[in-house]
Write a structure and sequence with these properties.
- There is one protein chain.
- With 603 residues, this protein is mainly α.
- It has 25 helices and no strands.
- The longest helix has 27 residues.
């Protein structure tokens, strides 16, 4: 998301684009530029000599030096000459120092120079260095809260100049918060990113009102962030608000409304409302047809095909995919990644319908495109396609080939900014494959790397994170790392109880694994208590004749026989068990050592 600097200057050529953005929510009216006009106000321009590093601190007191250095920084960013980004960064930092000395009245220009410096840091791949700069820029244009009016006194109206200044500061602060959110997103810190977007959104609504079309753009922008963080309920609320505002202010069947509907379809699809998603996609497609956007129509046809596939309407899905394939080949060429993505969707469809030869053929067609993609192909598009093909090969039992494809995808994406969650997903998938082929040490290492990335990116509260901890625990079991496995299962239990509930199948699977690991550690009574809870829930949910219930009964019977007691059918809460036993040490068996559990684990 371009910040305040982008209102008057182009971003550096080397800047990496921000992820997952359909459009920028920047308001169309930017604060007045502090460039050349302000540099010609009083005295003449500073001499060229003052621009060198040898300039002493006294020169920073020149009131015209800051705006002039800011202009030089923007010119250096655009031209790339004379040292390029490094030279532009030097100009921007010196402009900030000079404007800071001017104090009151130079706040907007100071924020501008800090935005330029942050943009250069991001362009150089130093996103962490940009964050304190942007935080300072936001603080500069955040006015102190006005003192509360005394009881019975009427608020004194502000002068017109103060009102205008407040609006300009508000828009500058909005831009700063949005750019700060984008920078956090590039580092994979989705919680911090969404928090920054939310602060910017509040400032924008306070300044423009909640029905302004620019607010609708920000709604959609923030909804996309919530989608990436898998927060679909909040994303749906924001997307509906954007759709309402655009329908109010735009012509019927506008492109803005079509973009909102495509995003809404994605959200509803993720929530399992496939009929609602299909309705929005059809309306968006009609709008694009009316506006002559053939490529966008083809892209929507792919999404329609995905929805038909989810509804098991296979013939209609094939028709949508083939229709999109014809248009994309004609418009973009046979070697474009978008063509390969349709091959992948067809491969998945034919695999689901049992036509394995056709599925393998479409996978090979896609791989030929990904081997030599068209110039300018995005690495995340190619990497995502390789991941999907790897999943199909895994389902076909070709694990080594799937592993090679994942390694290719990892090599493409591991150094890309803003792709931490995707890389973690690849490493998690590789961990599963390593586990399936018996390479348990490699499996644990892949899971550990994925877990560390998700912890750093703030995704420690997702169900996926809990499942990943469970899988890593299983790999530790195979490596005889019992204590580490117990810690991982306990953390997975806490996450999945919070995210899915105590009766969810994934949570029950972790309970079973905890029981097995406690048995291996000699904590037989704890294992029995957990299994009694699991069996009680499974009987209520699945019935007593279900194979899973029979399996749990057998496992519990073995433990009860060993402990010399019978089953307690009274329902117990596990809160006391987990609360009291978290810090409990492992018990020893009669031989004084650890022993393996006499029943298995659940993946």
């Amino acid at each position: 998301m371009p910040g305040l600097a982008a209102a008057d200057a182009a971003s550096p050529p080397s800047a990496a684009p921000a992820p997952r953005r359909l459009s920028s929510p920047l308001p169309r009216r930017a604060p007045p530029s502090p460039s050349p006009s302000s540099a010609s106000r009083a005295v003449g321009k500073p001499s060229r000599k003052s621009l060198g590093p040898e300039t002493d601190e006294a020169a920073l007191d020149n009131p015209d030096l800051g705006p002039f250095l800011l202009k030089q920084a923007r010119d250096a960013m655009v031209s790339g000459e004379g040292g390029g980004a490094a030279r532009a960064l030097e100009f921007a930092e010196r402009a900030a120092r000079a404007l800071e000395r001017r104090g009151e009245g130079a706040e907007l220009e100071l924020a501008m120079s800090l935005h330029v410096a942050a943009a250069i840091h991001c362009g150089l791949g130093r996103h962490a260095d940009a964050i304190p700069v942007l935080e300072r820029a936001v603080a500069v244009v955040t006015p102190p809260a006005p003192p509360p009016a005394a009881e019975g006194e009427e608020a004194v109206p502000q002068p017109e100049e103060e009102v205008r200044k407040g609006e300009e500061w508000a828009l500058a602060a909005f831009s700063g918060w949005m750019q700060l959110g984008d920078t956090h997103a590039m580092l994979g810190r989705m919680d911090e990113s969404i928090a920054c977007y939310g602060k910017g959104f509040e400032i924008q609504m306070a300044a423009l009102g909640d029905r302004d079309p620019r607010v609708a753009e920000t709604c959609r922008y923030l909804a996309e962030a919530h989608v990436q963080a898998l927060q679909f309920d909040e994303a749906e609320k924001l997307c509906r608000k954007a759709l309402e505002i655009h329908r109010e202010h735009s012509a019927p069947a506008s492109l803005e409304e079509a973009s909102d509907r495509r995003l809404m379809a994605l959200i509803l699809d993720a929530k399992g409302d496939y009929d609602g998603a299909l309705e929005h996609l059809v309306l968006a497609s009609m709008t694009m047809v009316a506006n002559g956007r053939d490529v966008e129509v083809a892209t929507i046809d792919v999404s329609i095909g995905n929805t038909y596939l989810a509804l098991a309407r296979f013939d209609e899905s094939v028709f949508s995919y083939q229709k999109a394939l014809t248009v994309l080949k004609s418009a973009r060429g046979d070697d474009h990644p978008s063509v390969a993505s349709v091959f992948v969707r067809l491969a998945d469809l034919y695999h689901r319908t049992g036509k394995l030869r056709e599925s393998k053929s479409y996978c090979e067609n896609a791989l030929r495109v990904y081997a030599k993609p068209a110039p300018g192909a995005a690495p995340d598009e190619v990497g995502g396609g390789l991941m999907e093909i790897a999943a199909i090969y895994e389902a076909l039992g070709e694990l080594d080939e799937a592993l090679k494809l994942l390694q290719r995808a990892l090599k493409l994406l591991e150094d890309s900014p803003g792709q931490w969650s995707t890389v973690a997903g690849i490493e998690a998938q590789m961990g599963v494959l390593y586990y399936m082929i018996g390479r348990y040490a490699d499996s644990r290492n892949s899971f550990e790397s994925a877990v560390s990335k998700l912890r750093a990116s703030g995704e420690r509260k997702s169900a996926f994170f809990g499942v990943l901890l469970n899988q890593m625990g299983l790999a530790c079991v195979q490596l005889f790392k019992i204590d580490e496995a117990a810690q991982l299962f306990e953390e997975a239990r806490a996450v999945l109880e919070q995210e899915c509930g105590a009766s969810h199948p994934d949570t029950l699977g972790v309970y079973s694994n905890l029981a097995a690991i406690y048995d291996a550690m000699g904590r037989v009574e704890d294992a029995i208590e957990i299994l009694e809870h699991v069996l009680k829930v499974r009987e209520e949910k699945l019935g007593t004749a279900n194979p899973d219930v029979e399996d749990e009964k057998r496992r519990l019977a073995e433990l009860l026989k060993e402990a010399g007691r019978s089953r307690n059918r009274k329902q117990k809460s596990l809160d006391n068990l987990f609360g009291n036993n978290t810090q409990r040490g492992a018990k020893k068996d009669s031989s004084g050592g650890r022993r393996w559990s006499n029943f298995g684990f659940r993946s």
